[in-house]
Amino acid sequence: MPAPRKYPQELRERSVRLVREAMSQETSLSMNAAVIRVGHRVGVNSDTLRGWVKQARIDAGEVAGVTSVDAATIKALEREVRELKRANEILLAASSFFARELDPRLPF
């Protein structure tokens, strides 16, 4: 079970929006400077906010990367593969067990 989120989604969205607005209003302002400025105002660690902004840019298609939706899909598929491999191992062991029960001469 994932750890509870420290920041509510509304705060995340508002903080990212504030960083984007700050960068659009002051074209000379770098992303790092905007993140530090907004982070202090809203009470969010600047490194955390920087990650949110980068992920928002990826999700919006502005930069290349794995979107949040794709990451969730990949995670679900990896979980399913693990479960299927485990089920396959159990079935293989069971079939070997029952084969020995039927014919004890088999080398399994």
UniProtKB/TrEMBL annotation:
GO terms for molecular function: DNA binding; transposase activity. One of its GO terms (biological process) is DNA transposition. It holds the Pfam family HTH_Tnp_1. This is Transposase.
